Amino acid sequence: MDIDASLIDWSRAQFALTAMYHWVFVPLTLGLGLIMCLMESLYVATGREFWKTTTRFWMKLFGINFAMGVATGIILEFEFGTNWSNYSWFVGDIFGAPLAVEGIVAFFLEATFIAVMFFGWNKVGRKTHLATTWLTVIGATMSAWWILVANAWMQFPVGMEFNPDTVRNEMVSFADVALSPVAVVKFLHTVSSSWVLGAVFVVGVSAWYLLRGRHREFALCSLRVAAWFGLAAALITGHTGHMSGVQIAKYQPMKLAAAEGLHQGGNSVGLVGVGLLRPGVDWSRAGEDAFLCKVDIPYGLSILATSSKDGFVPGINELLKGGYTQADGSVALSAEEKIARGKVAIAALAEYRKAKESHDSAGQDSALLRLRENFAYFGYGYLKGPEELVPPVPPTFYSFRVMVILGGYFVVLFAGMLLLGRRVEKWRPALWVALLTIPLAYAASEAGWIVAEVGRQPWSIQGLLPNAAAVSRLQPSSVQLTFFIFLILFTVLLLAELRIMCRAIADGPEKA
Description:
two-stranded antiparallel ribbon; 512 residues; 6% strand; single chain
């Protein structure tokens, strides 16, 4: 298979660009949505117009952000067909199902109730309006569920069978796809981290009002609600992050090794708290010293991966060389053996199709048997060598640390805001810290996706389809051109949102 490497790189870059811009808008939608639901619930419970005004202000910001997220999300889904058509053909029957459900059910729910939520304040009763607000946010969260189900399937493909006649993977169990353990944990971790970002945003904006001496009661109450909500969300995020780490150790050990910079594995492996990777390390070769310096948490990685401080965790070298005993008692194959078996599977598929055309039943049966015996390694057959199995280690390693360290910092921030209580307005340095934390929340959110997506390279579908086999056959110059068009378009959209949001914040809650 002769594919221009620049085509793969530009296709990946364009999809990454679109996904990261889209993810600027999505977590604030999910986080801010639930906070405004809580505030409107306080309005209905107490009858105070103050909470109605407060809700309408945050709802206005929610609406601005929601519209931008929809625009970028639509483009993202179209790119599966334009840039990754082989992927769409190979697994479209499975991957398309959750996206279809998202469009039919979840997005329909949002579209149905969002108009009443924004324009029905004086047209329906309080409880009815509260119900439409909750249903809108539930719809947005359901959208996230189905999209994350699709993404989780790419990380852990289940519920399918390969049809050699159509050369497609076909769904055999929708429940296995929709309720896979990876999908459930990914949803919980992603959504709870979005709640954290929404809480940081509300705390930061409230701090800005207090620094300027404006809307004091509104800012103090908003800050307190968001801090309580954010503290709970941050603790949930930490727990679900641990659950995700356990799953990665089980299903994607190479991603775990990259996230830890674990070149050489072993027993009783520590978890790197902070560290500095040595530049120029060839991660596909044995004997390299990976770190200039690091601080370990003793036994931490072994406990995470095996629930035992003495547990064995394979590093990149072991994963490439194989030969170690896995958790199920089997001996791990080397990367070269997996690639060889993958090539046998690909050759068997070609022989099966040829035998079918010539009506050779015996040849069909023989080829089909070899295909099924080796299909677990089908995707490896498209790789040129073991070195391609190693993901980009430095961005995965450093992004993981950014995500985890900032996650711990957010817990401290929310707890500090709650401890200060109403006295927080006198602690101007604390208010500045809260305000300047807003971009850090976005950095943590984007870092999480870098770990998830960069760490699973070179796979479009883990172990099943590498990028080189998934990409559309296009001219690299065409993808390059659209990359820069999207870069300009998305940057303009982002700047427009920032301008509109800042203007709305400057106007204050009275004009909401």
